[in-house]
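Our consortium's second objective concerns turning raw sequence data into structural hypotheses that experimental partners can test. To show how far this objective has progressed, the report includes one record in full. It was chosen at random from the queue rather than selected for favorable results. The single chain below, 198 residues long, was entered without modification.
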Amino acid sequence: MEELILSFIEFLKQFSYFGLIIALTFEFVPAELVLPLAGFWVYEGDMNYWLAVFAGTLGGTLGPLTLYALGRYGGRPFLIKYGKYVFIKEKEIDAADRFFEKYGAGVSFFGRFLPGVRTTISVPCGMAKMNVWVFSLYTFIAMFPITAFYIYLGKQFGLQWKDVGAKAEEYMLPVAAIIVTAILLFFVFKKARKWTSV
């Protein structure tokens, strides 16, 4: 199956950055495979790093919108019945549901950093009829550092780009912790400035 997906991605390479966007809009195509490969293309000089990151982030935002729409307009029974055709398992939907109930709308950001929840978290966001613009914004903000990280590793690993997936998972939670801390510090600093200016 992986070889078939890789052939599909290689076919899309002829469309350059647009092809990268298209590849990531299909949720059955793992970003963990596409992004390191894009990093390898950067390594080979076929793509610019930052343009690849932007295209990857855009594609990584459009892809989850399809699952969001399925959750919003199809609902849980539809996804349980037909999700298997796009590699979505019922236990993944259950895990995403529990995560959404616990953390609310912020999961469209935080959930992107967690294996096993990352893809399916869009489904409960759609079922809860979360504002689509807020969902898209949170997804874009989360996908930017994830995309940059995977493409960077693909570039660094070069010919061994296929080894990136396993290595990236080790660092994903620490990277998420750093990003969340930075965001919290930004808002605390902003609030503190507001109080001192009064």
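The partners drew two points from this record. Residues 49-82 form the longest helix (34 residues). The chain has a mean pLDDT of 76. Both points have been shared with the crystallography group to help prioritize constructs.
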